[in-house]
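User: Continuing from earlier, I have the next pair ready.

Assistant: Great, send them over.

User: Here they are, in order.

Assistant: Folding the first of the pair now:
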Amino acid sequence: MSATDPTVVLGTIGSDAHAVGITLLDHALREAGFTVHNLGAQTAKTEFATAAADHDADAVLVSSLYGHAQQDCAGLHDQLAAAGVDATTVVGGNLAVGQTDFETVKQRFEEMGFDRVFSAQTGFEAVVDAVKTELDVDERSPTTTTLGA
């Protein structure tokens, strides 16, 4: 982890155009003292990997609400490794379509290499707390990095 505030790269993966949740999570992370690089909606795996490498990210947070996260996230960890990124990875949202129970979905994403997996019903505070735990972060003051920087 970097010597300064912990850095996260955040975005909505694949063709998913939902951006409200990541914008709210962006604000919650900043309030908790994280430096956030919000890639926005419809972000390719390669963009996550490049941004994580460029910003020396401590964590990569991936959102998906349209139910196709498994397809969109396939190979993400390979892309991160190829870019030299060794960061905590978190995925959350409505990750699968149909009647699949969340524990089954969670197991699939953990098998893909994600450190934390959250359902769409998870509150922002729980995600922030989990990222803090993963990164062993103490309370810090908020940063002033601009949205999308």
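And the other member of the pair:
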Amino acid sequence: MNPLIASASVLAAALAIGLASLGPGLAQGNASGQALEGIARQPEAEGKIRGTLLLSLAFMESLTIYGLVIALVLLFANPFAS
């Protein structure tokens, strides 16, 4: 494997997992804070808010998993290496 392609793949994998975890991490913190604020304002709606929060957190976490998959493909099954 070309050393330039190998080093670029490692750098791209690091960027993929770093950026893929940054956005959802910030969004999950924001969503959790807003959900807690909503529960504090309307305690009777706690069940609906919690269910919606857990579903949205799962969708946000899937973005991080996609970034992990891209990073693993770049590291171990690199399509650019011949």
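Worth noting for the second one:
The chain is about 85% helix and 0% strand. The chain has a mean pLDDT of 92.
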